[in-house]
Design brief:
There is one protein chain. About 30% of the residues lie in helices and about 20% in strands. The protein is of the alpha+beta class. It folds into five domains: about 10-125, no CATH class; about 130-190; about 215-325, no CATH class; about 330-385, no CATH class; about 410-520, no CATH class. Strands 20-18-17-19-16-15-21 form a seven-stranded antiparallel β-sheet. The chain has a three-stranded antiparallel β-sheet with strand order 2-1-3. The chain has a three-stranded antiparallel β-sheet with strand order 6-8-7, with helices on one face. Helix 5 packs across helix 7 (about 165-175), helix 10 runs parallel beside helix 12 and helix 13 crosses helix 15.
Length: about 525
């Protein structure tokens, strides 16, 4: 289960294997395995985790750590340490603040802080005595008198206690005990002895975490109050056998898993959230996606995240579609920014004898952004991802006309041309339409410009020589191919009128065609 209280923020960097420079990302701790794996993927550091440089940007529970240098910490050590900090009780937190000076000097001045000592410092804190409502020496002196802690003070007659200097008594007691005042509490810090739990080599045992694509906290559907069954909810990991899932549902007095509700959702992919999942009616689709993710290679896992980043899924089905079409995408994994991709693109098309160092002297970010737009590709934290069905390195003309994306407003009041394509009535726009802009119930296809014909082909996605977008109510069947090549007879036929997408969706074109045929058969007269 993910840690809801993140108490530490790290800056991570890894040197680029093939060139000068570094990859950077941030990670919040405590972290689950999938969160750490995602950070390593962004750093392109899978398989070379030991080469990652780590520094602490923030630490909620020990702000002193933000200004120190740690002695060669590993990510596993820091994550274990963060888990220990997050698990401490309020009283243990007070003791930690009181004794932390033993490990973290007030003025470290470049001194290296031991991770072994930091981790060991989180143990044994519950053995230290704490007094509440004691925030200074005078209050401590009164506490010593009332509790008869000091034998000398306790021997003084009660009628003479008013003569005692409480502040001096408190000061003496504090010095004897090595006490520290923390947020209105008195901590007997001198009693603390740091246990030797961690030897600096092998971390204390932790139960290994189970890999999952998704986790759902499921329970019986409530009858009246939304959270009346939340207390009985249990976590299940996906992918899961459907019979096993239904058996869990029956244990919660539901007929099948779809009849349950979920009170928690965890995803190993940050781009897929509970908002995308929706409800338990989509359980089978989510489970199918989980099975697909379980079969992905490490490189495909990265590509999948890049695709979802470039084209955020609107629901689980669209995420599953992306997973099933990963082989139609290309990912430039080692590319960190647009300028770097532009140089890689030039290198691919130039003579191999060219010394690439000439390219390294150029500032090419703007050219890279323009090239990505031409290719229909996207820059993500995982690298550059191509458009579906397109190559990252196909030659593109510099002077190809710009094509503006169709804005969302067009789906409410903009008139689009009505055309006939492959036997279907459709809408045409010369702009691009993203998946997020596409209304439910419509499908989109791209037209590729032709040389001797207006449109050369219709495809699911066209990045180069994009001639327009077609919107239809039913998907096309290309007979197993990924596109259909037009000829003079099959080319799109513009019908000479316009409709808004809403009007288009509410029009029964089959009935209109039948009425037109009936009119033609009766000489154009209505019977």
């Amino acid at each position: 289960m993910s840690y809801t209280r993140k108490i530490m923020r790290l800056d991570l960097s890894a040197e680029k294997p093939a060139s000068n420079g570094y990859y950077y990302t941030e990670l919040q701790l405590p972290a689950e395995d999938y969160e750490i794996r995602d950070a390593m993927q962004q750093l392109r550091a899978i398989g070379r985790e030991d080469s990652v440089w780590i520094s602490i940007l923030e630490c909620e529970d020990l702000p002193e750590l933000e200004n120190v240098r740690l002695d060669s910490p590993t990510l596993d050590e820091l994550n274990f340490f963060a888990k220990r900090l997050a698990s401490l009780t309020d009283e243990e937190q007070l003791v930690l603040q009181a004794v932390s000076g033993r490990v973290i000097p007030a003025d470290p001045a470049g001194e290296l802080i031991s991770m072994k000592d930091l981790i060991n410092m989180t143990y044994g804190l519950d053995t230290v005595m704490i007094a509440s409502n004691v925030g200074n020496d005078e209050q401590l002196g009164q506490f010593v008198i009332e509790e008869e802690i000091n034998e000398d003070v306790a021997s003084i007659p009660e009628n003479a206690l008013y003569l005692l200097n409480r502040k001096q008594i408190g000061k003496l007691q504090r010095e004897i005990e090595g006490g520290v005042y923390v947020n209105g509490f008195y901590v007997v810090a001198g009693d603390y002895e740091m246990p030797k739990v961690y030897d600096g080599i092998t971390l204390p045992h932790e139960e290994p975490s189970e890999w999952f694509a998704f986790r759902l906290k499921v329970a019986k559907a409530p009858i009246s109050e939304a959270d009346e069954t939340a207390g009985s909810a249990e976590w299940i990991s996906l992918p899961i056998d459907k019979a096993e899932a239904n058996a869990i549902a029956k244990a919660h007095n539901e007929g099948c898993i779809e009849d349950c509700v979920y009170f928690g959702f965890e995803s190993s992919v940050p781009q897929i959230t509970s908002e995308i999942f929706g409800d338990m009616a989509d359980f089978d689709t989510l489970n199918a996606l989980a099975k697909c993710m379980a079969e992905m290679s490490p490189s495909d896992q990265v590509k999948f995240k890049a695709v979802l980043t470039a084209n955020p899924p609107k629901d689980v089905q669209s995420a599953l579609n992306a997973a099933e079409q990963l082989d139609r995408y290309e990912l430039s994994y080692d590319t960190e920014d647009e300028g770097e991709f532009f140089k890689a693109y030039l290198s691919r098309h130039m003579d191999i004898r060219l010394d690439r160092k000439w390219l390294d002297t150029l500032l090419t970010r703007n050219e890279g952004e323009r090239l990505l737009q031409r290719l229909g590709a996207s820059m993500t934290e995982y690298g550059v991802i191509s458009a579906c069905g397109c190559s990252l390195y196909e030659p593109v003309p510099y002077d190809e006309p710009e094509v503006k994306e169709l804005k969302t407003q067009a789906f409410t009041d903009e008139k689009l041309e009505v055309v006939e394509v492959l036997g279907q009535t459709a809408l045409f726009t010369n702009g691009r339409v993203t998946e997020q802009e596409l209304p439910e119930g419509l499908y989109k296809y791209d037209l590729r410009e032709g040389e001797n014909i207006g449109f050369a082909s219709i495809e699911e996605s066209v990045s180069v020589n994009h001639g327009g977008t077609i919107l239809v109510k039913s998907p096309f069947d290309f007979g197993g191919d990924e596109y259909f090549v037009f000829d003079d007879d099959s080319s799109p036929n513009f019908l000479g009128y316009e409709l808004t997408p809403e009007e288009f969706m509410n029009t029964d074109f089959l009935q209109e065609n039948q009425e037109e045929e009936s009119e033609q058969q009766t000489g154009g007269m209505q019977l």
